[in-house]
Amino acid sequence: MSWTNYHSHCHYCDGKYAPEEYVKSSLEKGLVAYGFSSHAPVPFDCVWTMKPESAHAYVAEIRELQQAYQRDIELYCGLEVDYIPGVTGPKSLPVLDLGLDYTIGSVHFVDAFPDGKRWEIDGSHQVFLDGLQQIFRGDIRQAVSRYFELTRQMIEQECPDVIGHIDKIKIQDEEGALFSQQAGWYRQELEQTLRLIADVGAIIEVNTRGIYKKKTSQTYPGKWALEKMKALGIPITINSDAHHPEEIILQFEDTAVLLASVGYKQVSVLLNGKWQQVNFDQTGLLHTVTS
Ligand SMILES: [Zn+2]
Ligand SMILES: [Zn+2]
């Protein structure tokens, strides 16, 4: 069994352990490549992002591990970078300065409360409801549309290598009480975003965290989007968004079955320093390129 995972957190941000613990766990689980993608620093108080002053130490530590484990596993140094217009993004200078191997671009913040505090769309449901009222006067369609609009703006202006959990906003609506993921307007927003990604050629991650944390019944993105993505020829990579060493490949087998059911035969993996397409089945990658 051989998998890869490029979306992961460690104690530099809101992960639980030192980077090496995730490497050891990856070796036990037979991964061929593992990428670190701590939450990039943001220039305001945030409990789950890396502190700006830790960024260089983070990169240095991952580079050391890369050397120390080079015979056993390919390790990569990335960041999950928030896109906040005019504030930070995958192509902002402090990120480029770090010389990373790849970036994951994600939208966790949508606009701000009247007092300036940024609205986290995947935080507590109460915070979500508060922002919905105070920023969007309760108009869920406007709020969700703004989320997808920001995602498209990121892709147009600061496209990362990998688009993170593209429909994560659904985390607030698993019961369908706020909006319907089947609604025409919702699907139109999502599809418009997918079409843009197909045009620029970025990779969309299929992120399993919502399932194993029991926050969602489907991966980010879900089956409807995956079918569209397949039709649009968008490359995918399977990621766990692991915060704990035991989460590194959770739900990968079921996700591989789902992906095969919508027609995907290959996943994108970062191996030998470049993103490439490799065949997979529910047991993992079928043959990994060695040159
Ligand atoms: Zn994220
Ligand atoms: Zn993450």
TrEMBL record:
Gene3D superfamilies the record matches: Metal-dependent hydrolases
Molecular function terms, GO-annotated: histidinol-phosphatase activity
Annotated keywords: Amino-acid biosynthesis, Histidine biosynthesis, Hydrolase
UniProt key word Hydrolase: yes
Catalytic activity of the protein: L-histidinol phosphate + H2O = L-histidinol + phosphate
One Gene Ontology cellular component: cytoplasm
Start and end residues of each PHP domain: 6-208
EC number: 3.1.3.15
Assigned protein family: Belongs to the PHP hydrolase family. HisK subfamily.
Designated name of the protein: Histidinol-phosphatase
Organism encoding this protein: Rhodocytophaga rosea
